[in-house]
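Much of our argument rests on the idea that a fold can be written as discrete symbols. The record that follows shows the chain in one-letter code together with its fold in token form.
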Amino acid sequence: MTKKDIFSLARKEILKLVPYSSARDDFTSDEKKMIMMDANENPFENGLNRYPDPMQLKLKQRIAELKQINTNQIYLGNGSDDIINQLIIAFCRPKIDSILTCPPTFGMYEVHANLNLIKCLKVPLNKNFELEEEAILSSIEKNTKIIFIPNPNNPTGNAFPNTKIKKLIDNFNGFILIDEAYFEFNKRDSFMSMIPKHKNLVVLQTFSKGQGLAGARLGACFANKYIVEILNKIKAPYNINSLTINAVLTKLEEQGIVYQQVNEIIEEKNRLLNEIEDVKFIKKIYKSDANFFMIRVDNGNKRYQQLLDLGIVVRNTSNYHNCKNTLRITIGKKDENNALISSLYKMEDI
């Protein structure tokens, strides 16, 4: 896929846009040494009286170092949802183009498609919650622009075989978006290393899960520089606030702690899964490559309410495709997991 191919997939009216330019893009001196009289800000210092860097250059440089990728291949958004929406806006024409998802899957792909009047094609996972790549390729329409694949999948928790995803990348002329929200917990390598050879590949990651910054709301898109160039045409001027930028910069210096916490979560998941094997009303525990797992129970709605009554909030996924009577459970701290174990066994007698 060439630059021409990428630009041909974008909406023509988007290509005509000129990215927002701040006056501060016009100088390279130390900002602290400059007198700022360009943006109508309050001049009295309080740590937040100035606008953040509109292009998040310092943050992108640090992420680029960590991920071993060029800064011009990084696009940051106010959470992954923001980036999903921006990609659909940039490349999908309302009432003409389509995206494709594989339910059960992350619901926001379809939500943003509907908000932008984009058709959402659906090719369900098989009964084992695996991709049906041949069915996906045969279901693609002329105007299908993006295939969304969360890996590991949400809500089922399983990672898909690389060979299946690679086949889609090699045989689809639109964009394959791999949503790696839970990649820190997955033993397999990120698809980021494939970006240089596959210009139709977009990898989405978040700082909400393994990095522990859900409240900061930062998503990161890694892709060919021409895809990023197009996204920058529709980016809001200051889409990442200063508090988030500073929080993430600090977190990037604490990756040893992140690694330790991720390992602890994985160990707790393994312990928890072993502990609940004998709960009578749990019919199946699904393999998980994430920081959560899904179980099938005798009555999803009943067991969900019982857990609520015992003070434990899980996700009732019973209304997802092929997920009748299932619950998705996030791994907590050891004492929280112990409370869950105790509650599940207590519920056998309720």
